[in-house]
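Field log, afternoon session.

UNIT: design team B
ACTIVITY: writing a sequence onto a fixed backbone
BACKBONE:
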């Protein structure tokens, strides 16, 4: 299940990269955050990849944990850092907001996310940290 979640995340990233155009900026990062939230809303496997990453894949056996963490860092996280144009832990804060807010909706059984509001909150995690 986790592998199919990674595949879905990587497909989503590739689709976003095709339409983004130009150099990365805050508006592109906001658009990417919204795209992530919509992806997670449509496919819980994709959300699980990021949720487990936030927890350092602690629920996985040791051998799977390292491979999953490496795949996440190399294929998803590094790209997000380049979009955000940051190499500090502010990207972690942004992801924590996205994962946490989305998780609240999953666990509450709410079907619709306020994608715009959550994405703006997540972006503030970076802009307020700067």
């Amino acid at each position: 299940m986790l592998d199919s979640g990674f595949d879905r995340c990587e497909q989503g990233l590739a689709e976003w990269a095709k339409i983004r155009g130009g150099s990365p900026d805050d508006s592109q990062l906001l658009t990417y955050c919204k795209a992530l939230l919509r992806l997670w809303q449509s496919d819980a496997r994709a959300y699980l990849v990021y949720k487990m990453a936030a927890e350092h894949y602690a629920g996985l056996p040791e051998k799977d944990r390292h491979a999953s963490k490496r795949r996440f860092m190399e294929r998803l996280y590094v790209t997000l850092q380049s979009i955000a144009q940051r190499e500090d832990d502010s990207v972690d804060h942004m992801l924590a907001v996205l994962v946490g807010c989305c998780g609240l909706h999953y666990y509450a059984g709410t079907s619709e996310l306020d994608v715009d509001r959550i994405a703006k909150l997540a972006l503030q995690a970076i802009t307020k940290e700067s």
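LOG NOTE: The chain has a mean pLDDT of 86.
NEXT ACTIVITY: expression trials, pending approval
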